[in-house]
Amino acid sequence: MQTDISNLIKGQDVFFKGGGTLAISTRKQLLKALKDTIVNREEVILKAIYKDLKKPTFEALATEINIVIGEINNTLKHIDKWTRPKRVASSILNFPSTSRIHQEPYGRILIISPWNYPFALAIIPLIGALAAGNTIVLKPSEMSPNTTAIIQEIIQDIFDQDHVSVVVGDKKISQRLLEFRWDYIFFTGSTEVGKYVYSKAAEHLTPVTLELGGKSPCIVDSTASFKHLAKRIVWGKFLNAGQSCIAPDYLLVHYKVKDRLINELKEEINKAYPDLCNSTSDYANIINTDHSQRLLKLIQDQEVLFGGTVDGQLFVPTLVNEPHIDSPLMQQEIFGPILPIIGFQSFEQIQQIIDRFEKPLALYVFSSENSFTDKVIQSFSFGGGVINDTMVHYADKNLPFGGVGHSGIGAYHGDCTFKTFSHQKAIVQRSSWLDIPLRYPPYKGKLKWLKFFQR
Questions:
Q1: Label partner for 246 (CA 20 to 30 A): which of 118, 333, 344, 435?
Q2: What average pLDDT does the structure give for the chain?
Q3: Cross-strand bridge partners of residue 364
Q4: Statement to judge: residues 179 and 244 lie in one domain
Q5: Which of 211, 268, 333, 416 is catalytic?
């Protein structure tokens, strides 16, 4: 395998240096081919995702396929503008001149994608890397083998392997890939593995995007409207059985409305998932039994208000009351269908809890008071968030998606994806018809003019 990867990288290096990725018309053609193939093989992709996660067709279509198609459409619509050199104002010290920014592809890109949204989180960054003019090696997760297999088939059908290739295998293969020098690395996964990826990239000073996670809080103020409150929290928490990096990890609710919210959460769970054990249930599986058992251990010795049972890879939506802040449940990202509920009476209590953790990937706040939501947004650092809903910021192609601190480095979606995989090359073009002597020695008598023009 070592020789195969080495030869693959050499082939991509030759392909890139030969200009095989540079023509905008070629990039468009390949993006259109990718879109057409996905549309034509939609049912096959949905079946593969179902085999891996038992993800309902509606969820898989909305969060895996449609969002990819939307990303391709948006890229095709704007790629001419994105790739065009951008004129910017020139410094007066460089007069006469023009200044512009060229979008230059980095070169060889490594993308390592996760299992929780196995299709979308592999293909969306690939779209941006392709549009920016790079070669790509994609390493999908071995934990979602059926989706990985269909991704490999699609890529092999469309691309020259020296342009885009899929490498399959376990974490040892990922580790092997990280031993090589890349021009950019894009990783989506856990913070723990992200640190390892970052350390390997640092050996070659390779720039990275790390899309990680963390304990994303959901705050419910006493003034929050209950009209859609419980429904939106249940949807965001239990979509994909809670296996979303931006799912609400724990709920902070004002004591005045805590009991009412708990009752409504129970009602909404029953409405959303009335037949959990039915093969047509609208509820996904946990990725494997090991993860199910990990989740089960987290609720040991906890006060379970709802759920708490597991059957193989089916983990019932679970509500936990007032877990201790130092319990295992609160010391790691849950990444499953368990929602801890913690009451608060003051903003200071909210701060004490949130500040115990690293900066989260997402934060959600429900309130009817703008002063309260403004205070929350200004008081805490997080990747992105929503007021009076959960998770919906991910679907907005006009917003950058990414973390901060331990929840990630860099952002993507829409034009941010293109920019992520492009180096912004600055160019100044001077004219020869005039040359202002200010910058040249001797400097006597020029100091005041330097201050005048440069400050």
A1: 344
A2: 95
A3: 218, 386
A4: no
A5: 211
Q: Is residue 451 part of a domain?
A: no
CA distances from 441 to 146, 220, 379, 444, 445 (A): 69, 65, 51, 8, 11
Check residues 106 and 4 and name the one with the higher pLDDT.
106
pLDDT in tens, 67-108: 999 999 999 999 999 999 999 998 877 888 899 999 999 999
The active-site residue, picked from 64, 71, 245, 268, is 245
Place 1 in a pLDDT band, splitting at 50, 70 and 90.
very low
Is residue 410 domain-shared with residue 386, that is, in the same domain? Answer: no
**DSSP letter string over 291-319?**
HHHHHHHHTTTSEEEE---EETTEE--EE
Q: Catalytic residue at 211?
A: yes
CA 136 centroid distance within chain? 18
Element (H, E) at 83: helix 66-83
| pLDDT tens digits, one per residue of 132-160 | 999 999 999 999 999 999 999 999 999 99
**453 domain-assigned:** no
- How many whole angstroms separate alpha carbon 340 and alpha carbon 248? 10
Could you tell me the two tokens for 452? 């005048």
Instruction: Identify the three-state secondary structure at position 107.
Output: coil
CATH number at residue 66: 3.40.605.10
Report the alpha-carbon distance of residue 395 to residue 241 in Å, rounded: 18
Which amino acid, 229?
L
d(CA 170, CA 140): 9
List pLDDT tens digits, range 33-79: 999 999 999 999 999 999 999 999 999 999 999 999 999 999 999 99
Whether 142 and 267 share a structural domain: no
Peptide bond into 140 cis (omega under 30): no
> 452 burial class (0-12, 13-18, 19+ CB within 10 angstroms)?
exposed
Q: Which of 106, 103, 126, 107 is nearest to 14 (CA)?
A: 107
Contact at 8 Å (CB) between 251 and 233? yes
* Cβ-Cβ contacts under 8 Å for 445 (sequence gap 6 or more): none
DSSP string, 210-275: EE-----EEEE-TT---SSHHHHHHHHHHGGGG--TTS--EEEEEHHHHHHHHHHHHHHHHHH-TT
Q: Amino acid letter at 150?
A: I
The one-character DSSP state at 63 is I
